[in-house]
Design goal:
By secondary structure, the protein is α/β, with parallel strands linked by helices. The protein is built from 17 helices and 20 strands. The protein has a six-stranded mixed β-sheet, with helices on both faces.
């Protein structure tokens, strides 16, 4: 590769990006030297992946400048980025499982025989073999990707990036699904790339990894650049403080004063593959129990398993002290459990139906008369009562739900579960995609429900929200609970410490 180790490969300056209703990036900057591993860290939603997707041509920037090897460039597409020597390995690998490792690496660029419509399989496999040998990777090029472990699939992605003669390799959460042994092997590959003069961007929420692999760390917060520090000169505590160092909320916390001592939900030994590992917790009447953690921590997977949307491998679930057999969402509803999905438009609402229909849809049997006819007077009265009680802003019960604001849609989902007389409500990212004013209404609604004796689990990626609303906070990392904190005494720093704490590996008995 041209140039000496240490030359500036990438300069990004004044980068801004807006999505509808969201300021994703505001005047961000980032640089990368040849032969360095530069870590990019920040909370969920800090803008890390968005910034790197702009560098990789996935998104177009709205403002700012990008220079590669000292030259101003436009990167309109991922293909353009590859031609400029920039490759990205996404957290969700983009390999085709039914093709071989070699076919995945050179797809669309396969070597041909003399007749151009015939592929040269021998040359294809030999080219892949040379890439693997150069990285000291033990993978047979003819092996189908479906038969490879996740770590090996990641190695195929790295080989694919290098086959484009990449000078810049971006890795988005590369260790999220790997074991310690696999991480050691990945880091060996990253060090070799660095020694060969490749610039590596390492996006990660595992802060303990930074000291092992990175030369510098850039911190982002709320779509803005915070600071860049030499890894050897910074402590993990300092990095965490930079990640969360913002005003939490001007308003005082809204945690209800008293929690009923009666436990309404007990979960013991909940496991589901690698996503959820031996999770245990309890929930009391009138309590808001916050679930915090970074992307991939397993919080939503816990909620779906408790609700019966996913079948756990093992679980002991008790409702009001009695064993509850929950094999489906219908079982959960019969036990008095409601689940408000983070994707309310996909899983919580029938967007093409009106407000009244959405409110009564989950409990329609309650409103049936003889011969299976719906008692429309009762459905109308029930829906109207909840619209008034929750202050749902709609011109009428006949308004299509798709035409309502995000905050109002969320209230319609709450109304649906209140119609079902659920005592346990699981809110998964309750304010995602909702403006500040509507957020405040949702917070007041949650507290009102808690005051009424509802038991609430609130999953949120916003630390200020978790701190503002929770009696207790359960923190997860990689499928396990790594800490539990009192809502009144917790700090953002404590939550982030637990959220980036690699859980101990259980020893064989």
């Amino acid at each position: 590769m041209p140039g000496a180790v240490g030359d500036l490969l990438v300069e990004m300056d004044g980068i801004s990006k807006d999505f509808p209703g969201v300021h994703a990036l505001k005047e961000c900057r980032f640089d990368l030297h040849r032969g360095e591993v530069h870590a990019l860290v920040g909370e969920n939603g800090a803008g890390k992946s968005t910034l790197m997707k702009i560098l990789a041509g996935v998104y177009r920037r709205d403002a700012g400048r990008i220079r590669l090897n000292g030259v101003d460039v436009e990167i309109p597409t991922p293909r353009a980025a590859q031609l400029l020597g920039v490759s990205i390995i996404h957290q969700e690998l983009s390999l085709m499982p039914n093709l071989t490792a070699a076919q995945n690496i050179f797809i669309g660029r396969e070597p041909r025989r003399r007749l151009p419509f015939l592929l040269d399989e021998h040359a294809l496999n030999e080219n892949a073999r040379r890439l693997f040998e150069g990285l000291h990777i033990k993978i047979e090029p003819e092996t189908k990707v479906a038969k490879l472990a996740v770590a090996q699939q990641q190695m195929v992605e790295i080989a694919k990036a290098l086959s484009h003669r990449a000078e810049v390799v971006i890795m988005d959460e590369p260790t999220a699904a790997l074991t310690e042994t696999e991480i050691d092997e990945l880091f060996r590959i990253i060090r070799k790339l660095r020694d060969d003069g490749v610039g590596v961007v390492h996006i990660s929420h595992r802060l303990e990894e930074l000291k092992r692999i990175s030369d510098r760390v850039t911190v982002m917060r709320d779509g803005q650049y915070v600071a860049t520090v030499d890894t050897k000169d910074a402590t993990i505590d300092q990095i965490i403080r930079m990640m969360v160092g913002r005003t939490i909320y001007e308003a005082a916390p809204e945690i209800p004063e008293v929690v009923d001592p009666n436990v309404v939900l007990e979960v013991q030994g909940l496991s589901r593959g690698r996503a959820v590992r031996n999770v245990s917790f309890s929930l009391r009447r009138g309590e808001i129990l916050g679930f915090a953690g970074l992307v991939g921590a397993g919080r939503t997977e816990v909620a779906r398993a408790v609700f019966g949307a996913d079948r756990p491998d093992t679980a002991d679930i008790r409702v009001h002290g009695k064993a509850a057999r929950i094999n489906s969402p219908g079982d959960a509803v019969r036990q008095g459990i409601g689940y408000l999905s983070e994707d309310r438009k996909r899983y919580g609402l029938a967007l093409g139906m009106d407000v009244e229909a959405n409110i009564v849809l989950a409990t329609l049997r309650k409103f049936l008369r003889s011969f299976g006819r719906v008692d429309v007077r009762r459905t109308h009265a029930a829906a109207q009562q909840l619209v008034e009680r929750l202050a749902i802003k709609t011109p009428s019960l006949r308004q299509k739900v798709r035409n309502l604001s995000g905050g109002t849609q969320q209230k319609v989902v709450v109304a649906k579960w209140l119609t079902a007389n659920t005592e346990i409500l699981i809110f998964d990212e309750p304010t995602r995609g909702i403006d500040v004013g509507a957020k405040s209404e949702i917070y007041h609604l949650l507290n009102e429900l808690a005051h009424q004796g509802k038991a609430i689990i609130m999953i949120s990626s916003e630390l200020p929200e978790i701190l503002r609303m929770s009696h207790r906070i359960v923190v997860m990392c990689e499928g396990r609970i790594t800490g539990e904190l009192s809502g009144r005494d917790a700090t953002q720093e404590q939550i982030m410490t637990y959220a980036t704490m690699r859980p101990p590996v259980a020893k064989a008995s």
